[in-house]
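Hey, quick one: can you model this chain's 3D structure?
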Amino acid sequence: MKRSGKNRWLSASLRLVWAGASLVLLGSAEAGEAAGRPDVLFIMADDLRPELASYGSTAITPHLDRLARRGVQFDRAYCQQSLCNPSRSSLLTGRRPDFLRVWDNSTHFRTHHPDLPTLPQWFKDHGYSARCVGKIFHNWHTSEKGDPRSWSAAEFLHFAQQGANLAAVPAPLPPNLASPAPRPYGTSLPAAPLYECRDVPDEAYFDGRVAAEGVRLIEEPRDQPLFLAVGFWKPHAPFNAPKKYWDLYDRAKLPPLNPARPSGAPELAFHDSRELLGMPPERVEFTPEQVAEIRHGYFANISYLDAQLGKLLDALKRCGRLDNTIILFVGDHGYHLGEHQLWAKNSNFELDARVPLLIAPPDCRQAGGRTASMVELIDLFPTLVDLCKLPEPPGLEGVSLVPVLADTAQRVKPAAFTQAPRPAYFDREPGGQPTAMGVSVRTAEVRYTEWRDWHSGRVVARELYDHSQQPEERVNSVDDAQWARALAQAEMLLEAQFPRPSPGAER
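Sure thing. Here's the predicted structure for all 507 residues.
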């Protein structure tokens, strides 16, 4: 029997209603299942090497130390590339930079993979309210959009230039008590001095406002579990924490600087440190007094960051949610403060590749423990999914660290991998492509790095550093016969992770 147009319309309408109802029911089921799951407080710092008191540093970090006592500290955690955008894109998608084809600060990770699920997006799609406060994804130089599909509401203070982080207080502005800085930081107008010390409240700078908004969201009434990502802008330059954090330190008692390059290291291992030194004709060379001021400012920034994190922990305790919250704190990559004649990041040296990582699940069996297990930032996505009993998206390249949280003696992988291109900021050079890529493997004994021609894959330089006796990476021992066994193992691991392209293969 032939149906009338009206009947066909009714049938189609009923199918749409049924489909909509099904989606609502599925969504309700997902939300109901999520209701009993723990909250997640995911905290990321910018440009923070493991300069925490719990890691043996002279940095004053009482609140991070409090978090370390509550959870597990990972002493050998490594980023996949020591630059903001590649590292954050890799961590938040669980994929390595080579898969993403993101090795610079300009390329959005969705350029080549528009539908790739992110860590917060996955939680949002499984019943969580996913919120972003501060810098979580990179503040792309070419876009203010962030990644809206990852979040349940608009991002807060997620995009700005670091050089725009000026003290914002009612006039008159308190005086700068630091010595005159050699240059401004960044290109925004007006740009902040590279360092300054003013007696202003925490909220005068970005991170004080980030902490206040994070506290508000923690204490906000809600009917869903919360995935709250809080991205602090510090200790990234400019070095301009409020005066009370500078006052915590006696500059004469900060660790001495050894600026020497490792003997035998190839020139490709280094870069021009343009982020702090600038580019000709504005390039500067720091005086010893300016070096001391910068290093002091970096430590002040760390303590300022620590105080903001403390506000989040206090809010969780105050509203009774501390015992049902997984807290994860991580740095996006490390940093150089004049060591190896380098400033800032973008190398394969340990100081750039190694990051602080603290994970504190509720009722942590190993609370206060430390682990030497090799871990990578791509492991954080599967770890949080595992802890919250969510299904795991296909294709993640990391592994869950839950076994290590249960037993700090456990090892989940034999090595960690980091990479760095040359030129370091190739996207701002003519041609817009690297000429070489340094790929690096860190085992328990050594760090081994190969510098490869970008197009042919031919190895043009090598480095091997002994971490059992010289963790400061002072001598390139790649030709030392006593390291032949460790070198062979490292070469095998590196080739398995970064197989050299066939001649003529497209990059």
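One thing worth noting: Residues 426 and 434 are 5 Å apart (CA to CA).
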